[in-house]
Design a protein that fits this description.
- This protein is of the alpha+beta class and 332 residues long.
- The protein folds into two domains: 69 residues; 259 residues, Phosphatase 2c, domain 1 (4-Layer Sandwich).
- Helices cover 42% and strands 21% of the residues.
- The strands form two sheets. It has a six-stranded antiparallel beta sheet.
- Strand 1 and strand 2 form a beta hairpin.
- Helix 1 runs parallel beside helix 2 and helix 2 crosses helix 3.
């Protein structure tokens, strides 16, 4: 090989060694830079996690306040037993119920605000305040609901759309005067197991400011039961994409005829969850049960038992029997 060729190879080897040396010298700096970058990302991730934990805690606290606003969950009022519950699919619910004293009557409200989560929860508190104020101003539920609708629409570019069932229960006449604004028709299940639907009312709230509403009335006899509910109950689907529907709801309530209002509530919920099986509900489930007891006919002149101080501790766990036990019960 010529001297020129040997020199060229030697020069090339020197260049390669130089590059390798430079690379080795630069490696610690690159590693330090990479480590610093990873540490910065980790710090940012930890900060995001802390913020998320604070947000989750705030939402949880808001949900507890929301549930307290819906209390009492259970009470006895003269001849009547009342039980209500909300089972949200998230922490905050767009559903609500409220039981309130209105002089000598008892006010009952069940509502469902379109949407879920934080926005529905905020609107819920506002709407419940409007209902409480209008219910104390007007003895006719239709007038009270119309006022709530007008105030909800006033000065709101995009008012929330909400369904509402509002009623006044008169303990002297055992009469329920009601207005149903777009909620699925509540059921009155008679002692003889016939069923009536409470459909008088008008459109959903927030749709039309000048909407007109009507009142209906029904008498509750001993053993009769009122069931008001949100559409999440009847529209709950199972793995075959079938809905629970009205027929199953009526059958579930009639299956526990004579039970207390609280027993009817949780038995009905159990029937809905059994139907859904492995499918999780896609919408909030809300139930309000009012039952006139059979055994109080001789107590009408006695003192009325009221309990508006029952603390709300959130949904009571529902223990469902195993499938084998349910099959065994059916075979008896």
């Amino acid at each position: 090989m010529s001297d020129i060729g040997q020199n060229a190879i030697a020069n090339r080897l020197e260049r390669e060694k130089s590059r390798e040396g430079n690379a080795r010298q630069g490696l610690p700096a690159t590693a330090r830079s990479l480590t610093a970058g990873i540490q910065s990302v980790k710090q940012e991730l930890d900060a995001v996690r802390r913020d998320q934990a604070k947000l989750q805690q705030a939402i949880y606290e808001a949900a507890q306040i929301q549930r307290k606003l819906c209390a009492p969950r259970e009470l006895v009022w003269g001849e009547f037993e009342i039980a209500g519950e909300i089972f949200p699919v998230r922490h905050l619910s767009g559903d609500f119920f409220k039981v309130m004293e209105l002089d000598s009557a008892l006010g009952l409200a069940v509502g469902d605000i379109a949407g879920k989560g934080l926005s529905a929860g905020i609107w819920q508190a506002h709407l419940m305040g409007l209902i409480r104020r209008s219910a104390r101003r007007h003895s006719d539920p239709a007038v009270a609901v119309a006022e709530v609708n007008a105030e909800l629409c006033q000065d709101q570019d995009e008012p929330p759309i909400a369904a509402l069932f509002f009623a006044r229960l008169d303990p002297k006449e055992n009469e329920l005067v009601y207005c149903n604004a777009g909620l699925p028709a509540p059921l009155v299940l008679r002692y003889n197991k016939t069923v009536e639907r409470l459909e008088r009312g008008g459109p959903m709230l927030g749709a039309l400011q000048e909407a007109a509403y009507d009142s209906g009335s029904v008498r509750l006899n001993p053993g009769d039961l009122l069931l008001a509910y949100s559409d999440g109950v009847t529209e709950c689907r199972n793995s075959e994409d079938k809905e629970f529907e009205m027929g199953r709801l009526s059958a579930a309530v009639n299956a526990v005829a004579g039970a207390s209002a609280n027993q009817v509530l949780f038995s009905t919920l159990g029937a809905v969850l059994d139907f859904a099986e492995v499918s999780s509900p896609e919408d909030d489930l809300t139930l309000l049960v009012v039952r006139r007891r059979e055994s109080t006919m001789n107590e009408r002149s006695g003192s009325r038992s009221k309990d508006f101080s029952t603390p709300y501790r959130g949904p009571t766990p529902v223990v469902r029997p195993k499938k084998a036990e349910r099959r065994g019960n059916r075979s008896k």
